[in-house]
Amino acid sequence: MSHYKRRRVAYIEQLRRERGKASDYIGHAAQQLGPGDRIVLCCRVSACEQNRNGNLDDSEANLRRRAEALGVCVVGSYRHVGSGYDPWWVGRAAAMASELRAKLFAESPDRFIRSPKYSKTSQDAQAREVDLRYLAWWANGVPLVTDLEPDATPSETRSYQRKRGQRLKGKPGGRPRILDDRRALARAVGKLMRTLPRHGSGGGNG
Question: Considering the entire predicted model, what is its pTM?
């Protein structure tokens, strides 16, 4: 292997290990969008079950609400059900946005791209530099913008998505209501039992 190839392989390996900075590739709506801007809403969920549960509908409704608040013009929407590891589908969304002279607008960077190391047991894994460069390649020059600050932490991203879901589904935060109802019932039963007369288990003297 030539010296040039060795350097290139080493550089690629470095990119694979290096955590990327999303704000180098994705803009923040608060700074990048303003009245009159044209946007295509970009919504993604990982599984069909999430789609059946209405998560894509909730995501689009939230983005439309945010677009109205920002005064921007929604000219289209693109939905995708599938993994966030490979952003090939962003190429299709970007082609739509390019034709409409618009920017792509998503809720958070993980709607565009996720780290291959992300899983239910490793939810803090963030996109690497090589992942973000791959995303930019598929975007093909179309600006990517998110409602949440692009460099938000994984916990901030989860909080954003949880609060959006609670707001749109009309569910308050905290413990589930059914659990509170069961605990209240248990306390009422316990109080009632304490008021009942007690009967001894032993026999009389006769």
Answer: 0.75
